Automatic annotation (TrEMBL):
Its EC number is 3.2.1.4. It comes from the Eukaryota. It is an enzyme of class 3 (hydrolase). It catalyses: Endohydrolysis of (1->4)-beta-D-glucosidic linkages in cellulose, lichenin and cereal beta-D-glucans. GO terms for molecular function: cellulase activity. This is Endoglucanase. The active site is at 413, 464, 473. The lineage of its organism: Eukaryota, Viridiplantae, Streptophyta, Embryophyta, Tracheophyta. Keywords: Carbohydrate metabolism, Cellulose degradation, Glycosidase, Hydrolase, Polysaccharide degradation, Signal. Residues 1-25 form the signal peptide. GO terms for biological process: cellulose catabolic process. Residues 30-486 form the Glycoside hydrolase family domain.
Length: 496
């Protein structure tokens, strides 16, 4: 090779180098992805938008929310590509945004930490309204059946803004328990920057938890609520995990031994030992075990050892080298669970991997998975594979985060993104008039930067199809845990 003319040698060397895989830490701009993952929430806002709104294709919407109850219920987030405010997934989104700040906020650039807190507060200001009346919790605003029958901008909504409330003694342990978790976690996120607001959040978290625990049961068991919540956000997996989850967050936010006793005394009866290897808006088991394990690992609470044992078991299921590994992966390496919106599993599980790795590292511990010892590095490595897959290291070569890289979904299932902005098309677009945009093969006119779609099929394939909502619809609860994960890798691209 040394006998080749210099120009041929250079060309050959260049060709060989381009065929080598780029190191993932140099290829992915995790800081850019972090910024965009937070920006996404501004495109999901309901209510009066502020002067510093950065997503300029959005405008005010849902300004009469709550009027049927003579209550002001403006604000909060639309959960996905529709125009409904579902309290159950919104509260989980808030919990995960807050947990992202609690665990990784010190790694964020100051401006992104501020943007994260703004995103949390947009939700908590609304959640405080939902628990503002004695013995009542507002769980949803908007008739989803009417909404889903239309394709219209949130700014044009003329579908019923039905208010769904649960009054004692009717149960809503799941939504109230998750709301308690959200308010408790967010109180920790705001403790240093706004202690007065943090105290308000914690006080209302305790009130929400009391409602959840006093009137036990699933909110969707109520026939009136079921008609609105189902089949979208029914409680499919039971309300018991939300009671433990709410108590765990209140324990962490308040250090009150009352909630420690609750976790100790109610763990078995509420299914803490079920060891369900799942984490998301409906099932908190794996997240609960990781959260509680922090105190156990720090040597403070041996009485909660069963929670840590379950967390260890969950981590072992994620490690391919472990004899207990049973999480399904796509051929390209994506964590896969049957059902729609698969990336919600990849982002939540990645968050738990990185959070647990931090807990292990701080206490110089590892997880024993049969004959394999699994330390923080292995857990982070598993999480990074999921992150990089989402950002483009996949068989499609596609970033599943809109606006990141040059190759991302163009036709996401999202009303506001797919219809022309009111700034470009101020005329009213009625319910069925939006169908022409829904059925169009053109890219969405408004790029919903930072939105992470539902994701590919089990075989890693993805059709950029607005109609296929299971794959092409973004949700707030896919993005929320990813904020924390990206914060970690942005600060530690070459982790060890």
């Amino acid at each position: 090779m040394n006998n080749l003319p210099p120009i041929l040698y250079f060309l050959l060397l260049s060709t060989l180098l381009t065929q080598l895989p780029l190191s993932q830490s140099s290829y992915h701009e995790y800081q850019e992805a972090l910024s965009k993952s937070i920006l996404f929430f501004e495109g999901q806002r309901s209510g009066y938008l502020p002067q510093d709104q950065r997503v300029t294709w959005r405008a005010n919407s849902g300004l009469s929310d709550g009027w049927t109850y003579n209550t002001e219920l403006t604000g909060g987030y639309y959960d996905a590509g529709d125009n409904v405010k579902f309290g159950f997934p919104m509260a989980f989104t808030t919990t995960m945004l807050s947990w992202s700040v609690i665990e990784f906020g010190d790694l964020m650039p100051p401006n992104e930490l501020r943007n994260s807190l703004v995103a949390i507060r947009w939700a908590t200001d609304y959640l405080l309204k939902t628990v503002s009346q004695p013995n009542r919790i507002f769980v949803q605003v908007g008739d989803p059946h009417a909404d889903h029958n239309c394709w219209e901008r949130p700014e044009d909504m003329d579908t019923p803004r039905t208010v769904y409330a649960v009054d004692a003694p009717n149960p809503a342990s799941d939504v109230a328990g998750e709301t308690a978790a959200a308010l408790a976690a967010s109180s920790m996120a705001f403790r240093s920057s706004d202690p007065g607001y943090a105290e308000t959040l914690l006080r209302n978290a305790i009130k929400a938890f009391k409602f959840a625990d006093s009137y036990r049961g699933a909110y969707s068991d109520n026939s009136y609520i079921r008609d609105g919540a189902c089949p979208f956000y029914c409680d499919f997996d039971g309300y018991q995990d939300e009671l433990l989850w709410g108590a765990a967050w209140l324990r962490r936010a308040s250090s009150d031994d009352t909630f420690l006793s609750y976790l100790q005394n109610n763990g078995k009866t509420l299914g803490a030992d079920d060891n369900i290897n799942e984490f998301g808006w409906d099932n908190k088991h794996a997240g609960l075990n990781v959260l509680v394990s922090k105190e156990v690992l720090e040597g403070n609470m041996y009485s909660l050892q069963s929670y840590k044992a379950s967390a260890d078991s969950f981590m072992c299921t994620l490690i391919p080298e472990s004899s207990s590994s049973h999480i399904e992966y796509s051929p390209g390496g994506l964590i896969y669970k049957p059902g729609g919106s698969n990336l919600q599993h990849a982002t939540t599980i990645s968050f738990l991997l990185v959070a647990y790795a931090n807990y292990l590292e701080r206490t110089s511990q590892a997880v024993t998975c049969g004959n394999v010892n699994v330390g923080p590095y292995s857990l982070r490595q598993q999480a990074k594979r999921q992150v990089d897959y989402i950002l483009g290291d996949n068989p499609m070569g596609l970033s599943y985060m809109v606006g990141y890289s040059d190759h991302y979904p163009q036709r996401i299932h999202h009303r506001g993104s797919s219809l022309p902005s009111v700034k470009d098309h101020p005329e009213f677009i009625a319910c069925k008039e939006g169908s022409v945009y829904f059925n169009s093969s053109n890219p969405n006119p408004n790029v919903h930067v930072g939105a992470i779609v539902g994701g590919p099929s089990q075989d890693d394939s993805y059709d950029d199809n607005r109609d296929d909502f299971r794959k092409s619809e973004p949700t707030t609860y896919i993005n929320a845990p990813f904020v924390g994960v990206l914060a970690y890798f942005a600060a530690n691209p070459n982790f060890s």
